[in-house]
Amino acid sequence: MLYVSLNCQYLAGARSMHNSRNYVFSTGRRLLCAARSRLANGFAIDECSFHRAAVQLSRNRKHETNVSALFKPVQVQANVDDDDVGSELVGKLEKSELLKILNKFAQRREIKTLCSENGLDSYLQQQAFGSFRRYCIEAENLPVDVHITFSDIMHGAGHIDDIFPYFLRHAKTMFPHLDCMDDLKKISDLRQPANWYTNARAITRKIVFHAGPTNSGKTYHAMERYLSAKSGVYCGPLKLLATEVYNKANERGTPCDLVTGEERKFGISENSPANHVACTVEMTSVNTPYEVAVIDEIQQIRDQQRGWAWTRAFLGLIADEVHVCGEAGALELLEKICETTGETVEVRRYDRLTELTVENSALGSLDNVMPGDCIVCFSKHDIYTVSREIEARGKEVAVIYGGLPPGTKLAQAAKFNDPANSCKVMVATDAIGMGLNLSIRRIIFYSLVKPTMNERGEREIDTISVSSALQIAGRAGRYRTEWEHGYVTAFRSEDLQTLQRILSQTPEPLKKAGLHPTADQIELYAYHLPNSSLSNLMDIFVNLCTVDDSLYFMCNIEDFKFLAEMINHVPLPLRARYVFCCAPINRKMPFVCSMFLKIARQYSRNEPITFDFIKRNCGWPFKLPRTILDLVHLESVFDVMDLYLWLSYRFMDLFPEAANVREAQKELDEIIQQGVFQITRLLKNTEAGQESETPNFQMRRMTHIKEPRLPSSSRGRLTERLLAQGLLTPGMLSELRKEWDAQQHTQPQAIASSKDTQDVATDSDDDDSYAANTKKTRRKRKK
């Protein structure tokens, strides 16, 4: 039934698609055809394969969006003239006759043709006709020219088509884009992004591509050229990598500055910039000339969220030599892009320096874990489960996952790498794929499926890509470490064959590079569409933009839109609103989102966001976490401080205490480190139901978020997921428990009562209503 249903879904979608967009269904068609072939040959089909096919098809149907629906109508103001001059000249109009004329006008085929010629499709026509009809019928007096035209038609002295100029004037007032559609399309013409960077096009750049797998020395050779140059810039994907380059350069006597979204450090002094810079790729300057530029992990140019930053750096860097490092699959795309810039690519290929062996047997049991092993999981829940089970076997564990602060990651890596340390096993997510130097003997994939969120915020499960698997597996057997021969295997025997197949492949060639609307482009849109929200402007831009589909794609803007909609009601200048929405925030963390909104409100009132503001809202000072819930909350607070520092470099006047926040963040990093060191104890405390010392957090209750009541003894799967994912904070859980306990004492009488008590309020804000209903119940019993 599942197969039939999906096949029907595919056929229905195929019938409805436009011929010019046939290609967007190719992936879904290929998956379904493969499934059909396997069924015909008697093979079993896993439901995940069908899921992927259906997901691909549903994604593709997104392309059929009606662009006109994105333009929000503007309210047309009624005629402001107090005197009804039209009635004085030709007499009053009969509303019933007027309505007949308007309905006849809207149904005329000639009028619909004229509308189409003037940019009004059927969707806009329907809205414009309805608005124009209401405007004419409900107005106390119409403009003189409109009034006289209607009067002439009623008396046979005019034709019904004479109304069209006035209707079109009304429609253009409703939809301002009708007068500027050509301008909007010109602004969003992204077919030649190379021409945006005139300074880079004015010089002849030497492009060198260092292609090779993990542990091949490709980045080392690029960095040697960087350090020997008179000036240079390193563009990395992570703060950790940029910081590592900053430290190494200064240790080797090459003064180097560090520039990340949240931090600035100087190799010489603040007033004397160094000639070398290490930065995260988003912070790359395309206005400063360098002798050598290094762009690391170039394959990230295909990333749906951040790919635009690599595209911008590759096209815009003003450097005599641009050294690009990454997997060989990026070469073809880079060569095609260089054809548009008139540049050529010099390729230097590297082989892996150490041997990597895929084992013939799976791990099978955690009893078989050995020193130097790293078990890679793709969810926090698995991280917690595996860590606890290994430590239950008497082995110390280092833990690394994406949500940890950089200092904590480095501390865990140092603990694992230290030969004198008793910790010989690591449990980590794919965060180890880049940015950390680890001495790993064997990589063990705990699972091969990774949960992700698609552009609509829906949870999806899919097998990891070849590129991702090779990147992670390549971390085993690092050159010049204790374990130079690396090994790879799976935890489950049923995954081993799939893993061997994935690792035997080469990464697919990159097809396209990411692009993203700039602040200047959105400002131009806002000038033409002053009544549109920022989220709406982004939607319109993405749907109107013209992109060279053979080389580029528009990056996912869902995170940007999420933040734009969150602060839509906060009065901010457009440029400031755009900057706020570019902030690096994990929208799945409610506390961080809540603080983002509070900070935006404070900024809109032109009030400084001080360190006291942060302490008051985050609950400073902190103590060591006692449960996983506490740890997750502290990680959220760390992200809030990151947000403050990020904004402090863009709005210095209203974020004046970056130094104090940074010192507090360092202290918080140490607290989190201590929590991670005893993560097993935190897990036990969480399962035992021990409450955090909530007075230490002094959290204000987020009254705008309604949470379900949970009994204090509840420890089901839902509760565990909420704890592990950080969807509840210590203060919130404490409030929920108190409310539940209070309800348990007062509810028995209400439960025993009749239907009249079913509407008893349960929120703490409705205690008066609850008491009143309870009294009514008691009076009924007395009767």
Automatic annotation (TrEMBL):
GO terms for biological process: mitochondrial RNA 3'-end processing. The keyword Glycoprotein does not apply. It is found in: Mitochondrion. It is an enzyme of class 3 (hydrolase). Its cofactor is Mg(2+); Mn(2+). One of its GO terms (cellular component) is mitochondrial degradosome. Its main location: mitochondrion. Residues 365-526 form the Helicase C-terminal domain. Residues 740-783 are annotated as: Disordered. Belongs to the helicase family. This is ATP-dependent RNA helicase SUV3 homolog, mitochondrial. The gene is LOC111605503.
